[in-house]
Amino acid sequence: MTAAEIITIGTEILLGEIVDTNTRHIALNLRDLGVGLYRTITIGDNVERIAESIRESMQRAEIVITTGGLGPTVDDPTREAVALAVGVETEFIPELWEQIAKRVSLYGRKPTENQKRQAYVPKGALPIENPVGTAPCFIFETERNAVISLPGVPREMETILHNAVIPYIQKRYDLHEIIKVRVLRTSGVGEGRIDEKIGDLEKLRNPTVGLAAHTGVVDIRLAAKAKTEAEANAMIAEVENEIRQRLGKIIFGTDQDKLADVTLAALSKRGWKLVLLESGLEGRLSNQFSKTEDPALIKCENRQLATKELLPALQKLRIESGAEAALGIAFFPGKDEQTAEFSLITPEKEKSRILRYGGHPQNALSWAPNIAINILRRAVMK
């Protein structure tokens, strides 16, 4: 498998001033090309450290992609760092300077002298025009490697990646395989319990199976590498069917499905209306439903409730609203542990329970709504 590594460059990323979105975008596209991503790293604006990282990445992977550090200022060190890593000097490319001047003129300005830095690339590199910005890019080739340097501005990076870099990678490394990914979304059972049931499948080489735990939700990722999309889909389907047989109804959806949306769809199918009541969650329950206009949801109320006040208040709210189903949560933070009281009323049952959460209080604010919505989902789908 052709392998790649991504190096994001910028002290502002290390300081937390901006969020790196480039790595995710590049990673998704490498995945679709069938390229294995071995690791990613962020380096500050230091020529020697960047060069060292590039050399290390070149030993592990054929493709090394850098983003950032191609601007006109002194603290834009990528050109010099790549040159140092591969043992060459930088050279001025008149054609790049013409492209930069033309781009700057579109803004009614003349290029400044320091912008000439952007017309330099490591000697022997393949220049890549930036059609949407002033920072040209380049690819330095060795017999085995391609070091590809892209700008840090996301829209510029994305444009050049799709227009120039992806076609280059496909041709240079003769790529004819794809990687397909499917995510099974579960709720109601922890990561450890799921691992007990499908741990043997997590040892598969192709397709691969992996777990990603969130607060109240666990994702199961299936990834298959094949020559055609149909072949990859068939490989995934076989393993997915086995997982579904083992896990049953704890799987609530796939890929981008949301727990609240799936639950509302089940309510609509039964012709039930829903009201929600929450206390102590800072609106987290209502936020789960804020992006939907499903007619099954009547309203969500936020009140301050004491222990054992939830069920009577929910009973009253259900009657007043005329809803068939009512779901309530009252969250009580504590010094050592947090307590959540859940109540559910449907035409078929009425139940309450108290659960304790020993993690960080802020995580509990996400955990409790997911647990409550899943309780409702399981009741509605029976």
TrEMBL record:
Residues 5-172 form the MoaB/Mog domain. Pfam families: CinA_KH (PF18146), MoCF_biosynth (PF00994). Coiled coil: none annotated. It comes from the Bacteria. InterPro entries: CinA, CinA_KH, Competence-induced_CinA, MoaB/Mog-like_dom_sf, MoaB/Mog_dom. Belongs to the CinA family. This is CinA-like protein. It comes from Candidatus Desulfolinea nitratireducens.
